[in-house]
């Protein structure tokens, strides 16, 4: 007998199970309480705006579940984009985990499993039972503005290997979500901002994009997130995958045999909202095959989507059979969730959440990933200048530069170094000033940050190279600078701009860290 029987749910409760709602606030606000009470919304999506500390997050999640159990009698999926690295939502107290390409650069698959297991254990103890991770996109386009180091590699076999080890670790504790099906790695448009189009043949997709997802399905992934991309040889009528029955039902369910939960990327993203409207798209994606619709930000869209689904049931645009099928899958997976212990307190879970061993392991993975891609390891000169690029959110998936402390740490650790910080997109005037300053030094250390996206950084590198000094470029996110210039003699990849990678830079410059990582991407 099923623990959660769909026959016990009202129509509104069924509709509520389809919606995964984001909200604004760090406590159980009146808006989210009413959404659960009146609209029976059955799932929550958290962002960093909801999180102040580990203890506050724990209390928030406990409070949300208490409301849901009282008003619906079913546990919430409480989800989060906790990929690690550059897409991290939980900063304080808990572990800052490494990102996908960092893990792959260690060349140790067991690290992917261990990080997944540790991350999943922390999340479930904090009350998060679904992770919208890992990324299974094959980053085979170096101009990609949104994926980059969020991907494990540009090699589909390596992505499949590392991602599925990570999934196994996560799914010891929480629902993992493979994203962004069938792959956001070969786009040059960010779907947060516009609708990307990919014109690859079906055969090309089979050789590259599909491979990690097919392996994940075979190995028991619980959830897959759809991408808002028009694959012209995959979807019908120019639709993005999220709204395509051919992609979600015929391909993912039918041909690939996926039995888990289909989750949408954020339905308010401009790739969807600008073309179809978030409310109408909610009905379209449910009919196409989705189980959980992420409506991340705005209450009017969440209420509007619920009302639209009700209307569609009345006028025949959505059948009760379709609604029941979508909801039954959700209930099946909710039955597997770890029971909520409402008598537990944060003190009961603190030793797992704030764990020194987990933090040390994550830091070591970041250190082990540091990769000398070209040239020689640095030997600090007596007269050296560091030009440090200040990080910025490259896409809406990122958080803003909560950890831009490299310049401060360099000044604390190296009295002999001069440090100047520069913008992520230096202007011609900025470049002229920096080159003029650099003329007075024997050695120049430049930390790049997504030169593939902010290409005036490449202009700065080329201008510095003309000085014929001892130039070292340290890539603190996407390691693609060498794709755009041949003027870099010494190039080291750190793969992320995080507290642990900042410490790795310090150790490297001191000569106490020898790069031993293996680049997960190819260089021509």
From TrEMBL:
Domain Glycoside hydrolase family 3 N-terminal: 11-332
InterPro entries: GH, Glyco_hydro_3_C_sf, Glyco_hydro_3_N, Glyco_hydro_3_N_sf, NagZ_Beta-hexosaminidase
An annotated Gene Ontology molecular function: hydrolase activity, hydrolyzing O-glycosyl compounds
One biological process term in Gene Ontology: carbohydrate metabolic process
Keyword Plastid assigned: no
Xref: PANTHER family: BETA-HEXOSAMINIDASE-RELATED (PTHR30480), GLYCOSIDE HYDROLASE FAMILY 3 DOMAIN PROTEIN (PTHR30480:SF16)
Name of this protein: Beta-hexosaminidase
């Amino acid at each position: 007998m099923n623990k959660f029987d769909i026959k016990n749910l009202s129509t509104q409760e069924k509709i509520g199970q389809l919606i995964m709602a984001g909200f604004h606030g760090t406590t159980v606000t009146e808006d989210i309480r009413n959404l659960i009470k009146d609209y029976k919304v059955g799932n929550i999506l958290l962002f960093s705006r909801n999180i102040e500390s580990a203890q506050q997050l724990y209390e928030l999640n406990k409070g949300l579940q208490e409301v849901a159990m009282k008003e619906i009698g079913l546990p919430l999926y409480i989800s989060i984009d906790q990929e690690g690295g550059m897409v991290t939502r939980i900063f304080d107290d808990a572990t800052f985990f490494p990102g996908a390409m960092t893990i792959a650069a260690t060349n140790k698959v067991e690290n992917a499993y261990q990080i997944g297991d540790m991350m999943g254990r922390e999340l479930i103890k904090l009350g998060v039972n679904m992770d919208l991770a890992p990324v299974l996109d094959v980053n085979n386009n170096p101009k990609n503005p949104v994926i980059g180091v969020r991907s494990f590699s540009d090699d589909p076999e390596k992505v499949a290997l590392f991602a599925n080890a990570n999934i196994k670790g996560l799914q010891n504790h929480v629902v993992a979500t493979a994203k962004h099906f069938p792959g956001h790695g070969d786009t040059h448009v960010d779907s947060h901002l516009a609708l990307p189009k990919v014109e690859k043949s079906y055969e090309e997709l089979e050789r590259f994009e599909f491979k990690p997802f097919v392996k994940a399905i075979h190995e028991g992934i619980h959830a897959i997130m759809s991408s808002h991309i028009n694959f012209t040889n995959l979807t019908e009528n120019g639709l993005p995958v999220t709204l395509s029955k051919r992609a979600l039902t015929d391909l993912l369910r039918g041909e690939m045999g996926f039995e888990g939960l289909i989750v949408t990327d954020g339905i308010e993203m401009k790739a969807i909202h600008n073309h179809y409207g978030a409310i109408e798209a909610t009905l379209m994606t449910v009919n196409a095959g989705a189980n959980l619709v992420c409506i991340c930000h705005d209450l009017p869209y969440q209420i509007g989507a619920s009302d639209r689904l009700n209307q569609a049931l009345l006028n025949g645009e959505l059948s009760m059979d379709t609604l029941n099928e979508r909801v039954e899958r959700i209930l099946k997976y909710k039955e597997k969730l770890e029971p909520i212990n409402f008598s537990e307190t944060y003190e009961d879970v603190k030793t797992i959440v704030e764990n020194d061993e987990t933090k040390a392991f994550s830091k070591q993975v970041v250190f082990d990933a540091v990769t000398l891609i070209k040239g020689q390891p640095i030997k600090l000169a007596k007269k050296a200048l560091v030009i440090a690029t200040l990080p910025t959110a490259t896409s809406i998936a990122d958080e803003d530069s909560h950890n831009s402390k490299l310049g401060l740490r360099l000044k604390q650790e190296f009295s002999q170094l001069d440090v100047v910080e520069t913008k992520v997109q230096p202007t011609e005037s900025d470049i002229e000033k920096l080159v003029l300053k650099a003329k007075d030094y024997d050695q120049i250390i430049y930390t790049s940050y997504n030169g593939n996206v902010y290409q005036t950084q490449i202009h700065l590198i080329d201008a510095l190279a003309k000085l014929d000094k001892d130039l070292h470029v340290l890539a603190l996110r996407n390691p693609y600078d060498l794709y755009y210039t041949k003027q870099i003699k010494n190039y080291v990849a750190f793969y992320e701009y995080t507290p642990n990678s900042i410490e790795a830079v310090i150790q490297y410059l001191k000569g106490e860290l020898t790069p031993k990582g293996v680049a997960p991407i190819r260089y021509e």
